[in-house]
C-alpha cells in the first residue's frame, strides 16, 4: 500500500519570507498611525490653548476688558452732580487703559441684605459684576466716595504685574492691625494671589480691593455673604466679618496679598484711622474720603470738590 507523499519543500527558500514581508508592512502601518495620532494630539493641544484658558474656562472673546471697576451708587440719596463726577472719573480711567465700569445701584441689593447694614452691598455688587463680565480677569472694587487721582497709572503696571506685586506684598505681618496673632504667609507667590487687600490702623478695608475671577472668588464671596455673618451684628458690619474670615480661614489667607494702604486706598486728610503712611500724597492712584458718609459733621460732596478740581486739571493736560 502506497501513501501520497507531501509536496517537496524548497529547502533553499527562506522559512519566513512571506511573514517577514507582512511584519515589515505592518510595522510601517503602525508607525504611520503613531505619527498621525501624535500629530492629532498636537493639533488638539494647540486648539485647546487657543480656545480655553489655563483654568479650563472658555477663553475671553476679542475685546473683553481685562479689568472691571465696580462702584456702588446710591442714586436715591446722592445728588445728580455728585454721581456724575464719580462716573466721569471712573469712565476716564477705564477708557485710558481698556477697562470697563460696572456701576451698581445700591437699591437693587437691599432685598438680599435681610435688614443688614447697606454697606454689605459690596458683596452682591461684585458678584453681579462677575456674572455680567464672566470673561474678565480682575475686578477692582472702588468705594464711591473715592477718586482715581493718577489716571496715567494702569492697575497692571501699578499693582498686578507679578514682579511689582511681589515687591509690594507685606509678608509675615499681622493680617489685622495692629497685633493680630495671624500673619500673612511669608512664602506666598504673586501667581497664587487671588485677592489683594489693604488695611488702615484698625481693620482690613472692604472699600478698595482687587479680586481675580475664578472658583476662589466665588467661594470667598459666598463665605463673606453668609447669613450667619450678616446677622451676627458685627460693630463694623462687613468689615469685621472680613477681618474674621481672613484670620480664621487659612484657605482664604493662602490666596491673599496685603499691600501698603496708599497703593489703592489712600485716605484723605479729613479721614481718621489711616494706617502708617496711609494718608494721600501727590501721585497716589486713589484718594478715599473714608467715613464721610457716616460722620454727620462731614459732607462727601464738599470734601470731594477740591480733589475733583485737581483731577480735572490733570486730565486736561
Automatic annotation (TrEMBL):
Keywords: Glycosyltransferase, Membrane, Transferase, Transmembrane, Transmembrane helix. Pfam families: Glyco_transf_34. The keyword Transmembrane applies. GO terms for cellular component: mannan polymerase complex. GO terms for molecular function: alpha-1,6-mannosyltransferase activity. Coiled coil: none annotated. One of its GO terms (biological process) is protein N-linked glycosylation. The keyword Cytoplasm does not apply. The chain crosses the membrane at residues 30-52. Belongs to the glycosyltransferase 34 family. This is Galactosyl transferase GMA12/MNN10 family-domain-containing protein. It comes from Aspergillus coremiiformis.
Amino acid at each position: 500500500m502506497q501513501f501520497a507523499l507531501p509536496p517537496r519543500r524548497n529547502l533553499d527558500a527562506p522559512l519566513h519570507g512571506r511573514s517577514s514581508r507582512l511584519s515589515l508592512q505592518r510595522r510601517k502601518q503602525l508607525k504611520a498611525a503613531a505619527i498621525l495620532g501624535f500629530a492629532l494630539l498636537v493639533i488638539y493641544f494647540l486648539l485647546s490653548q487657543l480656545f480655553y484658558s489655563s483654568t479650563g474656562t472658555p477663553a475671553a472673546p476679542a475685546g473683553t476688558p481685562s479689568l472691571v471697576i465696580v462702584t456702588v451708587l446710591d442714586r436715591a440719596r446722592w445728588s445728580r452732580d455728585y454721581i456724575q463726577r464719580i462716573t466721569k472719573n471712573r469712565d476716564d480711567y477705564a477708557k485710558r487703559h481698556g477697562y470697563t465700569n460696572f456701576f451698581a445701584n445700591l437699591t437693587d441689593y437691599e432685598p438680599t441684605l435681610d435688614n443688614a447694614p447697606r454697606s454689605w452691598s459690596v458683596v452682591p455688587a461684585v458678584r453681579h459684576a462677575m456674572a455680567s463680565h464672566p470673561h474678565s480677569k480682575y475686578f477692582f472694587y472702588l468705594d464711591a466716595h473715592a477718586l482715581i487721582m493718577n489716571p496715567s497709572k494702569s492697575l497692571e503696571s501699578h499693582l498686578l504685574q507679578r514682579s511689582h506685586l511681589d515687591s509690594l506684598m507685606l509678608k509675615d505681618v499681622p493680617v489685622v492691625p495692629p497685633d493680630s496673632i495671624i500673619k500673612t504667609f511669608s512664602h506666598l507667590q504673586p501667581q497664587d494671589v487671588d485677592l489683594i487687600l489693604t488695611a488702615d490702623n484698625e481693620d482690613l478695608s472692604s472699600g478698595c480691593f482687587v479680586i481675580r475671577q475664578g472658583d476662589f472668588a466665588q467661594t470667598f464671596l459666598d463665605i463673606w455673604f453668609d447669613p450667619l455673618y450678616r446677622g451676627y451684628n458685627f460693630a463694623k458690619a462687613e468689615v469685621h466679618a472680613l477681618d474674621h474670615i481672613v484670620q480664621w480661614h487659612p484657605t482664604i489667607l493662602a490666596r491673599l496679598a496685603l499691600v501698603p494702604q496708599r497703593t489703592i486706598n489712600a485716605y484723605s486728610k479729613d479721614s481718621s484711622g489711616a494706617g502708617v503712611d496711609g494718608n494721600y500724597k501727590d501721585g497716589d492712584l486713589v484718594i478715599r474720603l473714608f467715613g464721610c458718609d457716616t460722620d454727620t459733621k462731614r459732607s462727601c460732596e464738599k470734601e470731594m470738590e477740591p480733589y475733583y478740581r485737581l483731577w480735572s486739571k490733570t486730565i486736561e493736560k
